[in-house]
Amino acid sequence: MRQTFVDTVSAALDHDPRLAVVTADISRDAFAPARDRHPHRVLNVGIREQAMVGVAGGLALTGLRPVVHSYTPFLVERPFEQIKLDLGHQDVGAVLVSIGASYDDPVWGRTHQGPGDVALLDTLPGWTVHVPGHPDEVAALLPAALAGDDHGAGRVYLRLSTRQNARAHPATGRFSVVREGARGTVVAVGPTLDNVLAATADVDVTVLYASTVRPFDHRGLRAAGHADVVLVEPYLAGTSAHEVAHAFDDVAHRLRALGVRRDVEVRAYGTAEEHDAVHGLDAESIARSIRDFLR
Amino acid sequence: MTKTLDLAALFRRMTGDEKHEWAAASTVDVLRVLYDRVLNIDPTTADHPDRDRFLLSKGHGPMAYYAILAAKGFIDPAVLDDWTTFASPLGQHPDRNLVPGVEISSGSLGHGLPLAVGTALGLRAQNRVKPRVFVLVGDGELDEGSNHEAIALATRLHVTNLTAIAVDNSSASHGWPGGIANRFAVEGWHATTVDGRDHDALHAALTARQDGPNAVVATIREA
User: Fold this and answer.
1) What's the pTM value of the predicted model, to 2 decimals?
2) Does some domain include residue A165?
3) In the listed set A117, A134, A159, which residue is the last one of a domain according to the structure?
4) Which residues in chain B have their CB less than 8 angstroms from residue A56's CB?
5) CB B105 to CB A45 under 8 A?
6) Cα–Cα distance for residue pair A241/A84, rounded to 1 Å
7) Short-list A136, A270, A293, CA closest to A199
8) Beta partners for B55?
9) Surface-to-core class of residue B127, CB atoms within 10 Å of its CB (0-12 exposed, 13-18 middle, 19+ buried)
10) Do A96 and A190 lie in a common domain?
11) A60–B122: do the CB atoms touch at under 8 Å?
12) CA distance B179 to chain A (A)
């Protein structure tokens, strides 16, 4: 996904003079060719994440559209007040692009994990949040994100991961129906889809796929026709629970929200798959949760 | 030219933020010199892409700022009378989306200087060589580490069209051993310290042509 992001943005810089890229050493070398071509619009600020977002805000104030990129916790958590004030409160646009997801690289430990990113951005109004599950979806989502809204503004968060599904799905901003069933709806977000499909292979449920979670496709969820919902997100469990509640605010419904556990800090290294198991996000755990929920 | 009496009268129309009256009073001379003699901006060019930019980073005590904006015609002086009320565009920290002529929303400290560096870089990226960027910070505000990321970055990225004005009214709890100017100078800024009430000295420092970022420390002492 990261290479698709770098390639797409590097090419876009060649034909869109409004675009700028701001990095804080992460992916600095990947953008070196683009920086050679556009030294004043591809800026590496060193390991200064507050300045990274502040500078992006300043660029946007002059009419540029900055793409800001780093590892998840260093992009969203460390400079969160800059995101809130230098972008949101100034009412200027930017595209934030993270790599690392919740725990793509567990050998680096807790300091490099960012499962709270989407929940944090959820505290701010007006953010579009994309969680692609395949590099082709990154390529599909980026053009609109780089273009911004009608006013050239628009704040977009693109959450990249080394975890990906076997195949891409249409990145339309709406939920895709991957499988139809009678007993409930499972919403798989981004890279969780393949585990969800494996977990539900012999379960009679509808599976929806979401590569965009903000705005949340309330209508698509309602259209699936079930008020029993299992939400599988690759970040903090229940991050989108309030969106499900909003979708069903006039009918009784049930929700089981799966995701990164909130009740424990997992002090372990190992592999992402091992962390999936701890958080109940491996196929076997998801299957068990769904069977228990539908019992 | 802004008349002293006009400004003082405008200033007095805003009450209720006595806590920050000293903060506001400390900036009034710098603001007057900027808006009278330095900035290439007026209400008719407030959105022009080649205008000079003034960023008030130290959003605390914006009474002097609002008074200047009213004196210069950016805002109607009548709005000063009910500032901070729900319907007023004027709060105790300014909002760029509510007040004509205000370049950044500020209040939380340590945001203006990074925004100013980004603004200067954005203008450079668009080959706009005419506009200059000025940002006003306080000596207490410089405690915030984000400023020092920006101070270091400005010279690393060869920013030239930027002037930081540090109003030093001795607000920093632990002071600045060695002087504020040195904090900028060690990062390659051209840095001078002037009497923050001396308009000619301020003018000379603010308009001096430099080949890199320029820092002007305006020292203010209570009479």
Assistant:
1) 0.96
2) no
3) A159
4) 118
5) no
6) 23
7) A293
8) B135
9) exposed
10) no
11) yes
12) 23
Name the residue among B108, B120, B149 with its Cβ closest to that of A85.
B108
Best of A37, A45, A70, A82 to disrupt the B interface (most B CBs within 10 Å) is A45
Give the integer Cα–Cα distance in Å for A8 and A164: 18
* Structure letter (DSSP) for residue B37: I
Mean pLDDT of A73-102: 98
Query: Which residues does chain A have within 8 Å of residue B117's beta carbon, measured at their own beta carbons?
Result: 51, 54-55, 58
Q: Would you call A51 and B115 a contact, using CB atoms and an 8 Å cutoff?
A: no
- A154 and A121, same domain (yes or no): yes
How far apart are alpha carbons A237 and A254 in whole angstroms?
15
Q: Is residue A168 part of a domain?
A: no
What is the count of structural domains for chain B?
Answer: 1
Instruction: Report the complex ipTM.
Output: 0.96
Q: What is the pLDDT of residues B185-222, one digit of tens each?
A: 999 999 999 999 999 999 999 999 888 999 999 999 87
Q: Give CA separation, A15 vs A80, A96, A137, B126, in Å.
A: 31, 20, 21, 14
Domain hosting A229: range is 176-294
Smallest CA–CA distance from A78 into chain B, residue: B146
- Asked if A20 and A113 sit in the same domain, the reply is yes
Chain B residues whose CB is inside 8 A of the A34 CB are none
Cβ-nearest to A58 among B108, B118, B145? B118
State which amino acid sits at residue A95: V
Q: Does A134 share its domain with A218?
A: no
Can you give the residue range of the structural domain that contains B14? 4-219
d(CA B134, CA A9): 31
The type of residue at B41 is: I
Do A132 and A6 fall into the same domain? yes
Q: CA B42 to CA B48: how far, in whole Å?
A: 10
Q: Shortest CA distance to B110 belongs to which of B83, B74, B149, B156?
A: B149
Residues A214 and A258 in one domain: yes
Q: Terminal CA-to-CA distance of chain A, rounded, Å?
A: 38
Nearest CA in chain A to B154: A45
Q: Based on the number of CB atoms within 10 Å of its own CB, is B173 exposed (0-12), middle (13-18) or buried (19 or more)?
A: exposed
Question: Among the three residues A127, A159, A191, which one is the final residue of a domain in this structure?
Answer: A159
Residue of A59, A78, A82 to mutate for B, most B C-beta atoms under 10 A: A59
**CATH code, A83:** 3.40.50.970
Residues B68, B7: contact at Cβ < 8 Å?
A: yes
Query: How many Cβ atoms from other residues are within 10 Å of residue A59's Cβ?
Result: 32
CATH number of the domain encompassing residue B70? 3.40.50.970
pLDDT tens-digit readout, A244-271 = 999 999 999 999 999 999 999 999 999 9
**Minimum distance, in Å, between the CA of residue B123 and any CA atom of chain A:** 6
Q: B52-91 pLDDT, tens per residue?
A: 999 999 998 899 999 999 999 999 999 999 999 999 999 9
